[in-house]
Amino acid sequence: MTIENFKPFVGQHCETTATGTLLRQLGIDLSEAMLFGLGEGLGYIFWNMKTMDFPFIGGRIKQDALTVNIARNLNLELIVKETSSSQKAWDNVKELTDNGQVVGLKLDCYYLEYFSRPFHFAGHYVALYGYDNNYAFVVDTKQQGGMVKTSLKNLALARAEKGPMSSKNLYYTLHKTDNKFDLKKVIVTAVRNNAKEYLNPPIANIGYKGILKTSSEIVKWFRQSKDIENEFKTSAMLMEKGGTGGALFRNLYRDFLKESFDLLKLDKFKSAYEAFVETAKLWNSVSELFEKVSQTKDFKYIQQASDILKTISEKEKKTMEILATI
Predict the structure, then answer these.
(1) Is 132 helix (H, G, I), strand (E, B) or coil?
(2) pTM higher than 0.85
């Protein structure tokens, strides 16, 4: 059973891809960059716990908040549900799909067979659009194949996995309301909200302060690492393709600012866009240096990455200060 007249969203980031697919079913078709911007998505976190194999470097706001912000800014109704029962979780999603509703799922991508290099990350999102007796048909990012399938058994394992960033079989749907949205007004609101949130982190490992902290923490990470080759290679891959460290997310925010300038013709958008062109390249450099660290185990590349992170922290702070006054 698959939903008819289904139009998948093609994206690079999992949550914007999943949510973008749900939005298309409502007749709302915006670019991935616009969705990321309207979701007030730009952020940063450096997270290190004893239970984790290596530190998590995140370049966006916390899990689940992106879709919450998109729904609020577009005046949509977002219904999010969780259950500790895997059977109930599947029955509920199956019923929605049977009724023609595309459903967003949050899960651990480790169990998805179409991932060529499995790793545990319980903050991954897909959109479910069909199933048969053996498989679930989902939309994932472009780099993971777009419209793909995974076994029902593995989907259940992925949805129920515990650990950092996990939820209890979380699923969500989006619905239109009687309230319309004015894209130009929404853009200004979203940018202002995002900038203020970024500039006022509650703890020192978030926002521009978190980037600065990372500049010293990666030195400790390198010296204490049990598997330099795999840890820094995986982190570099996530930064570029998963967006976690910032490279992909800075590219998305850069493009969002360009679209915003084209629509609103505000000079501050143009200045911020130009700044993020530079910042995105610096994040690319950091991920490239992480790749070199994994290949050579040479500390000099960590030192170079540390210096670049200090520059990024200052640049992003100044840019977001501009956007906070838009």
Answers:
(1) coil
(2) yes
